Amino acid sequence: MQGYGESSYGDGFADVYDDWYHDVSDVDSTITLLTSLVPSDRLRDGRFLELGIGTGRIALPLAETGARVTGIDASRAMIERLRAKDPSGKVSVIVGDMLRGLPDASFDVVFVAYNTLFALRSYERQHELFAEVAKRLVPGGSFVIEAFVPDVGRPAGGNVGVRTMAADRVVLMADVHDPESQTVDGQFIEFTDGAAVRLRPFSIRYSTTTELDRMATDAGLSLADRWEDTRRTPFRHDSVTHVSVYRRASVS
User: Fold this and answer.
1) What's the angle, vertex CA 224, arms to CA 135 and CA 207, rounded to 5?
2) Helix (H), strand (E) at residue 243
3) Distance CA 69, CA 54 (A)
4) Residue 94: partners with Cβ closer than 8 Å, 6 or more residues away
5) pLDDT classification of 252: cutoffs 50, 70, 90
6) Could you tell me the residue ranges of all domains in the chain?
7) Among 216, 239, 243, which residue's Cα sits nearest to residue 33?
8) What is the CATH number of domain 157-204?
9) What is the rounded CA–CA span in Å between residue 61 and residue 237?
10) Rounded to the nearest 5 degrees, what angle is found at the Cα of 31, between the Cα atoms of 225 and 92?
């Protein structure tokens, strides 16, 4: 998408993200899953890194457990929203690209929620991320990815639909799918009576679970678990979402 950059999504959605996506996945079960990946006697010392931390939907309640949480996001607008909700600074925040700006530190768990991995808009960048994450995981550490399972039957071309509608406001979503490049470019278009039209762009490159498993193997990680969601619903051939846990080998 012409003019689209690493911070475009966050800058475009920061003011509505908490309203639109607060219930996009279950926070409580996500926290339970993430903390279960660190032995209970080490949880207070466990270190977590969230890629694409946004407004802190997951990171802030995770920090409330006593875990040490760091997050990175390319959007200053998103980070400002997070900091307003976290005046005491329980979460350490880095403004930067989630591939190029990763901290030089070790973590027990690195996680990327709700399709955020696909914000890296090429196979090569996603592949490189696995390698960079693997370098930062402690032995036995986990890389957790929450994402949709691509619909292989979705045709190429454009689509327009209604997201929300009220007497004085309508939000449309228009997108274009290219199955060859595995990309979707789109806009949420917001019309409010008496106000200027607001555009909220998004652009992703999706990967199949097979591709993700290959990236993990190349980085020296192995698939430890895969569920349909963070409630650990069994993953099936027709599941439309997945939560995959990749693990670095423990030192023998």
Assistant:
1) 75
2) strand 241-248
3) 13
4) 70, 71, 72, 73, 101, 103
5) low
6) 8-150+208-248, 157-204
7) 243
8) 2.20.25.570
9) 32
10) 110
The long-range contacts involving 156-159, CB below 8 angstroms and separated by at least 24 positions, are 156/180
Look up residue 129 and give its two tokens: 């991320």
Which strands form 183-192's sheet, in the order they lie side by side?
Answer: 157-166, 169-178, 183-192, 198-205
Neighbours of 179 (CB within 10 A): 16
Residues 6 or more apart in contact with residue 190 via CB below 8 angstroms: 169, 170, 171, 197, 198, 199, 200
Please identify which residue in the block is written with the tokens 């200053």.
76
Q: What is the mean pLDDT of the chain?
A: 95
- Reference 71, options 92, 86, 88; nearest CA is 92
| CATH fold for domain 8-150+208-248 | Rossmann fold (3.40.50)
Average pLDDT for 9-32: 94
Rounded Cα distance between 155 and 111, Å, is 31
Share of the chain above pLDDT 70, in %: 99
